[in-house]
Design goal:
It is a single chain. By secondary structure, this protein is mainly β. It has a single domain, classed as Tachylectin-2, Chain A. Helix content is 12%, strand content 48%. A hairpin with a 4-residue loop joins strand 2 and strand 3. Helix 1 packs across helix 2. The longest helix is centred in the N-terminal third of the chain and has 18 residues. The radius of gyration is 21 Å and the shape is globular.
């Protein structure tokens, strides 16, 4: 029996080799991702009373403008950002379906080594589409949406090879999408619109397969990541007005949070506030965010501050150990 199994395994390897070495790696990666539920399991035990400790702070020493999304590959740190040249201005009444002018800007995808040293500045976008959003690494590519800086507009979905850094324009969509992940269970892309009020799912050719409204109004998701199996972990912020004596709507309070979304049921399965603060005084989940898990130990990396705020953009690391729920 053992010889039969060994022979079958050898034939499988030979067949995969005939198709190319990448087939073996792809199959191995697929098995790894399909069984790795550590992050989903550990995040399911996070509560409002979970203790998060800041364990490191990495200062970036190049202009980062307004940071949007972050992703980590084995060799690089990727950070998306928008450089505003001309701010948008709201119209007194909507014009042509838009509530504001398009403004002008430049979309950046900064590529760094693990020490935070800039290796490449990739410019992304076309015309009025210059605003990169939340990004994610799927094990091979970094996915980046670049949209107009206004709701109900348009966006380009880019695929950037994390090794060669080659840029591929995947497709365009007729709305502002500010975040995207690759669902490895289906091979489809899932994105969230302005304010994360709606989600959409596409195949890799850009055909929209379905769309659904966000059932949750706790925060607006800014940066998301894929979590096995068919889940999406997002971080974000909402600005709440203060009491009249504290300044009212002109003195907003930043409420930060994290949410897990089941891409199969389209429901938010868990959300928690996250009230840790950056050097410039922003809530930590304001924009770029990624989380990993090792057993019951969670590591969260964020980069909430712009390049011209506080001490400039810093990648902050928070850690927490959770107790599994019974």
């Amino acid at each position: 029996m053992n010889r039969i199994r060994s022979h079958a395994a050898a034939l499988a390897v030979l067949a995969a080799t005939a198709l190319g070495g990448g087939a073996v790696a792809h199959a191995s990666e697929a098995r790894s991702h399909s069984t790795d539920t550590a992050l989903a399991d550990a995040f399911g035990s996070v509560t409002r009373s979970t203790t998060w400790t800041q364990t490191s702070k990495l200062k970036l020493s190049f202009p980062t403008y307004h940071t949007e999304g972050i992703a980590f590959s084995p060799n690089h740190i990727f950070l998306s950002a928008v450089q505003i040249i001309e701010p948008t201005v709201k119209y007194p009444t909507p014009q042509g379906g838009y509530d504001r002018t398009p403004g002008k800007g430049i979309g950046h995808l900064f590529v760094m080594d693990k020490a935070g040293h800039l290796q490449k500045d990739i410019t992304l976008g076309e015309g009025d589409m210059y605003h990169p959003g939340g990004i994610d690494f799927d094990g091979t590519n970094v996915w980046v949406p670049v949209a107009q800086y206004r709701p109900n507009s348009s966006a380009i979905i880019y695929r950037v090879d994390a090794t060669t850094l080659a840029v591929h324009k995947q497709f365009e969509v007729a709305d502002h999408f500010g975040g995207i992940v690759m669902d490895k269970q289906t091979g489809h892309l899932v994105g969230n619109t302005w304010g994360s009020r709606r989600f959409a799912e596409w195949n890799l050719q850009g055909k929209q397969l379905k769309t659904w409204d966000n059932p949750n109004f706790f925060i607006d998701y800014q940066d998301c990541q894929y979590v096995p199996k068919s889940k999406m972990l997002c971080g974000g912020i909402t600005n709440l007005p203060q009491t009249p004596s504290a300044g009212g709507s002109s003195a907003t309070y930043e409420l930060g949070g994290l949410a897990m979304i089941d891409l199969t049921t389209e429901q938010v399965t868990r959300d928690i506030p996250f009230q840790q603060w950056s050097t410039a005084g922003h809530v930590a989940t304001r924009n770029p965010m990624k989380m990993t898990a090792h057993g019951n130990h969670l590591t969260l990396r964020v980069a909430p501050d712009n390049g011209d705020e506080g001490n400039g953009t810093e990648i902050l690391t928070y850690e927490a150990t959770v107790t599994p729920q019974r």
